[in-house]
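Let us work through a complete example step by step.
Step 1: write down the sequence.
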Amino acid sequence: MKLIPSLLCLAASVLTTCYAFAQNLEREPFQNLTGTIKAAAPGAVQVAVTEKEVWVIHIDDTIKQQDILFSGTAEKAFLRQGMFVEFRAQVNKRGLVLEPVASLTVFTPSEARPPGVLPDGEAGGGGGALFGDPKEGKEKPEPKKAAAKPKGDDTIYRVAGAISKVGRAGDVTVTAGGAQVKFNLAEECKITVDVNELAYVAPGDKAVVQGSSVRGQAVEGIASKIEITASKPLTDGTKKKPTKPVKEPKTPAKGAKGDKGVKGDKEEKPAEEKKEEAKKDGDKKGEAKPEKE
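Step 2: predict the structure and record it as tokens.
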């Protein structure tokens, strides 16, 4: 496989370049390095700008989480327990979404994008007033509104939380700001992925990188910002581990010179020996016959 040599080169490059950057050598910034992912390993990706120009880009602890961007689309099978998802829908006070969810986003929670259940457009996390006592939190009297509809009848809520269950029938339960919300996925549910991690990177994905390289050390760099777009819909939500190189066997495959232990030695004996053995077997059978009284 072509992926194996790429991973070997990438692993070796991670060690050498990390050492070079640790020596505080002079760096040269680069902007919008664009290419295709060839391989990925913990802390580094290999980006092919052209067939001959292949960069090793390192992602170390100095990069901010919001500067790591991975986006794409996914199928229903991608959803896993523990993933954070976000969608907008009508929700009743029992935490049930009234209609099948037609679209949702897998995301990374942050201060700007916290988990919770709140009317769409409001900032902040928490369970919101949907699951609380409507009398709580009303310290100041509000002016009366004519023909006010009860909350929850037609209010669209932003639901953001961690998946706690994915059922086989397409039913999903999330924990959002301490509240349990249950919903069903629509048959043609559109799932997008917008996360701040590189756990789902695969060869063929598109990459745009900003960062710096050691002066005089070509095609080696460290990212200050990296954006990756998946080339195909994601189907497996299991976070990937680096592929271990497999050494090809140098010895010939079994059977090339004859398998050991295979019954076939008798067939290789000379014809004369076979006749003698057959004659002996016939004599023994004759001797074994009992005599008639």
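Step 3: interpret the result. The mean pLDDT is 77.
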